[in-house]
Amino acid sequence: MRKTKIFRLLNTFSKNELKEFGRYINSAYFNRVKKVSGLFRAIKKYYPDFNIDEKTYRKIFSELYPDKKYNPALLRNIFSDLFEHAEKFVSFRALENSPFQSGIFLVNELYSRNLNKMAFHNIRKLINIKQRTQKKGRQDYYDRYQIENLRLFYFRKKYLEHGELDKFISSVNPLDPTTELIRYFLIVLIQNYNLYYTTDKIIFMEQDFSFIKEIIDSTSVNFKNDDPFITAHYYMLSLISRPSVENYRTLRTFFKKNENIFNDTVCRNIYGRFYDFCSYMILKGEGKYNKELFKLYREEIERGLFSKGINPVFFRKVVQQGLLLNELKFTEEFTEEFRQKLKQEERNSNYLYSKALINFYKKDYDRSLSELSSILSGDTYLKYEIRVLYIMIYFETGATEQLYSLTGSFRQLLKKDRSVPEIKKSGYINFISMISEILKDDRKRDDNLLSGYGKNGGNSFGPVFGNWIESKIRELN
User: Fold this and answer.
1) Pair (405, 422) in one structural domain
2) Cis peptide bond N-terminal to 48, omega within 30
3) Is residue 4 scored above 60 in pLDDT?
4) Is residue 37 located within the same domain as residue 21?
5) Residue 136 in 3-state DSSP?
6) pLDDT value at 458 more than 50
7) Own/partner pairs for 455-459, CB < 8 Å, 24+ apart?
8) Is the confidence at residue 457, as pLDDT, over 60?
9) Which of 111, 170, 172, 317 is the most exposed place for a label (fewest CB within 10 A)?
10) Which residues form the domain of 61?
11) Residues 463 and 419 in one domain
12) What is the signed CA dihedral for 178, 182, 185, 190, rounded to 10 degrees?
């Protein structure tokens, strides 16, 4: 038998969740098939890796069916039943951990039983839950829509259906649910348009999505001036679609005045737009934005927006930007402190790569090579960045044979790899071409090609790498 879906799901369970799932699966209310609970007891000892071979599968089968000959199909059926229960448990836990959403289900169910007063009492509880949420996120608008819609239903039943129109109007504004729903969908439209626009810049999309912008412009007129959350998203959209210093300053000023009302997700999105703009300006040759970008990185870090973990790409960018600006002390401290914020499966590879980059910066090439050689896995971009760092080390140490071999194989890999956007590929290919050109004899070297490197995106795939190769070009001159 192959490794089943249930193992991948159970692997994500904490020890406490695994214990709770045991209680769930042993409850006659949730599970009435004893073979399913028996299977769970048999496999939980292999948590979290679940390295189970064919011999162990046969042993598990004999424990469940001592009088039957081994039947893989029958065992797969029991595994399938256990997987369905695990999915239901995950759903159950999610609802249990969301008092608001479970309250919405309760109110709707009470309405279906004509227990309207009881339902209205629980609506008040829902309102109290939302009032305790001070910082706004997109979901808050949809939650308020649900509350207002349930309130509207209650007063419609209580007054409107009995002809008491005055009491109905004095108790509820019939437009409130629609208003909250429009706010919610306006934010969704803006966020999705940002995604489409950004994606289209990297991978050309054949669909015409300009109509979305028209809807946003016509709808936001009524909301963007009296709702800071919508205003923030509209300013983000303006900065993405029309990057300018004016739009950057507008969003920056607005964010400083209102940052305390936004939740962490919104704050991270806003910082993301700041980073995009600074990167855009750096690519245009505005080197002063390297300091602005680093300032923003430090600002977001100091705000403590990484309680739930840190993105590995962001982690590496902070390291690279710190080294670019000679902020060695900060970079080393950041690498050590925030390595624990990386997911466990990403931690070792990104930490070792960052240490290798720091030691390259210190000109400790042996240690840098040692750390690179210890990296066992990584995402596509990390693997590419590792190759670039190897090239830089081989260049600095005069390991010409390894350098030629790696640049050749790297070029071939880039040609075959379809998972990387062309704009990213071109940056790496440009880097390899510059290395090859630098290595040529003086008489064969194309100095015009080298002199145009910095003007045509020396930072297109990483500030440290672009800065390093520009320094090599300057040394030739």
Assistant:
1) yes
2) yes
3) yes
4) yes
5) strand
6) no
7) 455/285, 456/430, 457/283, 457/427, 457/430, 459/279, 459/282, 459/283
8) no
9) 170
10) 5-96
11) yes
12) 180
Residues 98-156: pLDDT tens digits? Answer: 999 999 999 999 999 999 999 999 999 999 988 876 556 788 889 999 999 999 999 99
Give the end of a domain, one of 174, 205, 232: 174
Give CA–CA dist 62/41, Å, rounded.
Answer: 14
Among 78, 96, 114, the domain boundary falls at: 96
Residue type for position 170: S
Helix locations, 203-309, DSSP H: 210-220, 228-241, 245-258, 264-283, 289-302
Q: Does 304 score more than 90 pLDDT?
A: no
Whether residue 86 sits in one domain with residue 108: no
Do both 395 and 475 map to the same domain?
A: yes
| Amino acid at site 58 | R
The reply to whether 40 and 84 lie within a common domain is yes
Q: What is the largest CA-CA distance in the chain?
A: 96
In percent, the amount of the chain with pLDDT more than 70 equals 92
This prediction's pTM: 0.74
Task: Please determine, for residue 176, whether its predicted confidence score (pLDDT) is greater than 80.
Answer: yes
Residue 134, Ramachandran bin (φ over 0: left; ψ between -120 and 50: alpha; else beta): alpha
- Which pLDDT belongs to residue 455? 46
Least confident of 36-45, 122-131, 342-351, 419-428: 419-428
**What single DSSP character describes residue 174?**
T
Token reading at 102: 């479970």
Is 156 contained in some domain? yes
Cβ contacts of 99 within 8 Å, gap of 6 or more: 129
Q: What is the pLDDT of residue 201?
A: 60
Domain contains 49: yes
Position 160 scores a pLDDT of 87
Are 327 and 361 in contact by the 8 Å Cβ rule? The answer is no
> 473 and 390 in one domain?
yes
Nearest C-alpha neighbor of 131 from the set 150, 147, 155: 147
| Polymer length of the chain | 477
Give the whole-angstrom CA distance, residue 295 versus residue 177. Answer: 42
Domain-located, residue 475: yes
For residue 308, the model assigns a pLDDT of: 80
Per the structure, the count of domains in the chain is 3
- Digit-coded pLDDT (tens) for 177-216: 999 999 999 989 988 888 887 776 655 556 777 788 888 8
Beta-ladder partners of 262: 136
Residue at 192 is within a domain: no
Structure tokens at 199: 């994606």
Nearest to 61 by CA among 83, 49, 77, 45: 77
